[in-house]
Amino acid sequence: MVAAAADGLGAIDILVNNVAISDNRHFLEITEEEWRRTIDVTLSSPFFVSREVAKWMIANDRTGKILNIGSTSGFKGRLTAIAYTAAKGGVFNLTQSMAVQLAPYGIVVNQISPNMTGSPVGQGGVQPKPGRLQPRRARRPAAGNRQGRGLHGVGRRVVRRRRQPIRRRRHDGDGLVREARRTPGRKADARTGK
């Protein structure tokens, strides 16, 4: 496939991986077949096509670019589409590893992660269809949250404010790095850190 494309076009300078399918299933409802199909199309396809294009570029002493189309769903969960979000998270990490490993060959790898603006996906999640499992979020509002918004303690962490030193690295003219430490609310001298 890659050789035929290169022969037809003369060369391959850029690859755009823009392939995905969504399962639109809840974690407790998705079948193994739906899971595997979504992962294969959305994550495995960009991997295999990118690998073959990169091999061609290296063998033909060409530099180029690979652009993976991700999704904001790869960074945060959705009420439905468990396999899709997992696959798009995988595309994000695949892109980072490819970028590091292909940089020595002059192949630049990037990703863009568009969101479906104006759709329920862009508004925090798709509401489940009638007859499907209803998440707790849809049944009761969060404690102390009159609007009923929020994740009801899912993933919350207790954060304590402490006065910790802030470390800042300063480079002097000789290329040496000096650390300046200070406590929030107090200025520190860059040389002494006091």
How would you summarize what this structure contains?
The chain is α/β, with parallel strands linked by helices. The chain has 4 helices and 5 strands, in the order H-E-H-E-H-E-H-E-E.
Number of strand segments:
5
Distance between the termini: 63 Å
Largest sheet, in brief, is: 3 strands, parallel
The fraction of residues assigned to DSSP E strands is 5-15%
Number of helices: 4
Question: What letter string, H or E per element, gives the SSE order?
Answer: HEHEHEHEE
State the shape: elongated
User: pLDDT average, as an integer?
Assistant: 75
Unreliable residue runs: 121-126, 145-161
The largest sheet has its strands arranged as: 1-2-3
Radius of gyration: 24 Å
Helix content: 25-40%
Structural class: alpha/beta
List the keywords.
two-stranded antiparallel ribbon, 194 residues, 5 strands, alpha/beta
Overview of the structural elements:
The protein has 194 residues and is α/β, with parallel strands linked by helices. 31% of the residues lie in helices and 14% in strands. The chain is built from four helices and five strands; from the N terminus they run H-E-H-E-H-E-H-E-E. A three-stranded parallel sheet has the order 1-2-3, with helices on one face. A two-stranded antiparallel sheet has the order 4-5. Helix 3 (82-102) links the parallel strand 2 and strand 3 (107-112). The termini are far apart.
